[in-house]
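Issue: copy button drops trailing tokens. Both records pasted manually instead:
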Amino acid sequence: MSPTNAPGHGNPGHNGPGHSAPGRTAGAAPRDGSGEGGQQRRRRGGRGRGGQAGAARPASAPQGSRVLAPGSLAPGAPRAGAVQPPAPRAESAPPQRAAQAAVRPASPSDPSTGEATGASFAELGVPAPLVASLEARGVTSPFPIQAATLPDTLAGRDVLGRGRTGSGKTIAFALPLVARVAAGQAPRTPRRPRGLVLAPTRELATQIAATVEPLAQAAGLRTTVVFGGVPQGRQVTALAAGVDIVIACPGRLEDLLRQRELTLDGVEVTVLDEADHMADLGFLPGVRRLLDATPRGGQRLLFSATLDNGVDVLVKRFLVDPLTHSVDSATAPPPAMTHHALHVADAGAKTEVVRHLASGTGRRVLFLRTKHQAKKLAKQLTASGIPAVDLHGNLSQNARVRNLDAFSSGEVKVMVATDIAARGIHVDDVELVVHVDPPTEHKAYLHRSGRTARAGSGGDVVTVVLPEQGREVAQMMRQARITAEQHQRTTAGSEVVLRLTGEVAPHVEPAPPAPPVQPTRSTSGARSGGSRRGGTGSRSSVSGGGSGRGRQGGQGGRRGGQDRLTSFR
């Protein structure tokens, strides 16, 4: 049995014929004008086929860089087999041409099995301190996307990594990011990071930071996270103190750049994670402006499930002669995932089926289309004895973190979410995903479903289908290339519902709401600052289940404790 990868870093189950298919990105135009018809392109220094050294560039290495030897982060003379950082990609530098594209040999593992590869991290050139950091967290063998990309990313090549969410991409880019920044000789400078990761959401940025930070600490580097929705004071303070790597959402990072709280002219390695999701959210113009602020000679790594919605244009503009690694089909479900379509008679039957599916002992994620319905269902489940938290765009950042921590730690087994959680939320051992409201398009279905069957484990995906939704759901399944088990006339007592629910968790009595605080007057006759707003509602360690603050929160808490599980669509 192969060791599992890092918590929350991927299901390497794949349907593709081969997990390592590097090659030039289709349609990428030459950046230096060399060659006719795009046949000859500038190649970067690094390792070629079979790990042989590529053509050396006549230009010198970037200022502040030094040789990175496999197995070491220590400065000094390079050892045998050292990986040489790439030279600057200035237009004036004479390009070196390769006879053919570098192609990495296939990894010894079968990507369809969801197992780690045969090569070790050390054999792939990962420095010893980083290998030790991974082993301390139980990560001993790379997954296919990691084995495929690491030889090239550690050598300084631009890389386009394609694969479904959950395939282990975070470690795949975190290792070269930390290793190459640590190999540079440039000193840590206030407001001038040398590594940059861009992510579409606060949740994803936070989870990337959780992976990068221990690796950075092992290499003697500092990191910080930058995103909106919270005061920027702490972020500005961290940048002013000096950090080596910044993990950021584009919006807040642009704000700080305009305020001159940092500069990106020292960035040596830039990573774009979930680039297609950033495109879906309309972030690509900001991403382009941020990339324009980084040096042209820096290394760039882009990881994306698809190349639509302008991601391909981003690749052509900012990645120089990149190698493409596709370890699986990003539009196909992992083979360890089982799909079920539960056809119910009406909204009342749907409510009871969903409540029963939520009552199991394992972790499960329930997806709805709207923030209001997600909040409502979390309250109803909690009131019926099934503790649940919600995750949607109306929550504050503190509430999001609190709820996600409660779900990740196992304090709460049920998360009710909108599509905000469909990408980048990496939680181990989610055994069941329920599409309470079927998504409107197949990519959303696949991203939602990707919360389960991660890191080689199995999982079940359930879509609850009302009579009027049957045709729409069938079309979506065809587009997603899903063959789901069809269950007609499903009720809460149906065998398939009982089987998918598994062992039922004990009933948890909801906490009673705190009594309202009586209004008081000061001795001067003026009203106290909080009396007009009403009493303080109950506060729990998680948001959802009817807790809140102030008059609105207090009333919500009482409603959350008394509401019955009403029907919903």
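Record 2 (pasted manually too):
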Amino acid sequence: FMRSKMLDKVALTENIVSTVDIPAEEKVKPGDTGICVTRLALIGQAEINGLAMEVKSIDGFLDEKTPIVVNRVTEGLILVERRK
């Protein structure tokens, strides 16, 4: 198998130089403000710092276009509450 140089024909010879995007969760910190894009029936879409992302409400149900503030970010989950 090795003598036929078959492995050389199928082996990867290029270097991979691409990078992975930073998740939105790392761009958001507690205290950042935003607005609900969809109704938060505990989980929904919100725009925070100009980025659309999935968030979870700790204030229960929040209607669309409700102002929100980030309470905390844990394990890739963004917890938000109604802005007071």
